[in-house]
Amino acid sequence: MADAKRRLRHIIYGLKRKFGQPVKIRRYSALTLDRAAGTAARTDADYSIKRAIVSPASQAGDFVYDLSFIAANKNFTYGGFFDTTQRYVIFDVRDIDKASDIEFAPDRNTDRVIINSRLYEIVRVIEAEIRRIIILHVKLLESTPEIS
Amino acid sequence: MADVNQNWDRWIFASISKHFETNKSASIHLFVEGEPRETASQLNWVELRIDGPDWTELSSGFFRGRIEVNVLCSATETSDTQSIRRLAGEIQSIFKSGIAVYKYGLGDDDDKSLLGCLTLLTDHRGKLGIKARYFGRVEVNTPMQQASVEAHYEVEFTL
What is the DSSP letter of A129? Predict the structure, then answer.
């Protein structure tokens, strides 16, 4: 097991070198609501990750087909779908700029991921075998503007 | 038909939101539809949703509006097996027979003065009134009980 973990760490390191790029996690920190006036002032804190593995957009396919699907849909063109707005982000919590957040656990409801100045929502948080590695399945929030 | 005042809808929405915010106990976490929603750190919470108003002009410039207020209650399963009943019960008590509508807001017309009163619709046949519905655990792998409490209100405004 220890050997497998070491191999995994080695693979992650290799991927980081190959696909690593700066990514930010935008974490909701406070909300000031005035329900009578209808205002919500949201305060966020950005956490920078020096090198996160960001999969090319087409790697996070949204569709898996099996034999029953093919049997039921004869006209289906084989090859599956892919969604260019979805990605996987893999990072090591030690790469987050704030050392105190070593127990960092993303919150799917409120955290957002910033990749190349675009905002992504977290679809799924996948816990890796090595606890400090976090895998996020993210989807582009298309209606949001670019973040400067 | 005369034109409905463009601010009525917003004033009703703000007044109901404010009513629930001020009448709930501090332990209940309230979200109003459209607000940022942070539930990861909460065990129990409620979400307020308002539908309507449906306007009818009864006579020239005299309108009756019908509003549906719906609150979804979510309680994480703990050793307290009645937590969802406690939560939904408190929400039921907040559905008062009357909710005041004030001209809330930050605009020129929003002077916070009293505009009217929403009246809870009830009848003796049991079709109207405050309705609680329990859904139990909606997803097998999510240990959470859910329920909804809803009621209809009516309001009359003159232009």
Answer: S
- Asked whether the beta carbons of residue A40 and residue B36 sit closer than 8 angstroms, the reply is yes
Tens of pLDDT, residues A36-87: 888 888 888 888 888 899 887 655 555 555 555 556 655 555 555 555 678 8
**What confidence tens digit (pLDDT) does each residue in A49-63 have?**
888 998 876 555 555
Set of chain A residues whose Cβ sits within 8 Å of the Cβ of B105? 36-38
- Tell me if ipTM is over 0.90: no
Closest-CA residue of A relative to B112 is A36
B14 touches A at CB < 8 Å: yes
Q: Would you put residue A103 in left (φ > 0), alpha (ψ -120 to 50) or beta?
A: alpha
Among the partner-chain residues A31, A38, A40, the one whose CB lies closest to the CB of B105 is A38
Does A128 have pLDDT greater than 80?
no
Asked whether the beta carbons of residue A36 and residue B40 sit closer than 8 angstroms, the reply is: no
User: Cβ of A38 and B10 within 8 Å?
Assistant: yes
In chain A, % helix, strand, coil (3-state, to 5) comes to 20, 40, 35
**Is the pLDDT confidence value at A113 over 80?**
yes
**Alpha-carbon distance B102 to B12, whole Å?**
8
**For chain A, first and last CA: distance in Å?**
44
Q: Give percent above pLDDT 70 in chain A.
A: 73
Answer yes or no: do B14 and A42 touch at CB < 8 A: no
Q: Quick one: CATH architecture of A2-140?
A: Beta Barrel (2.40)
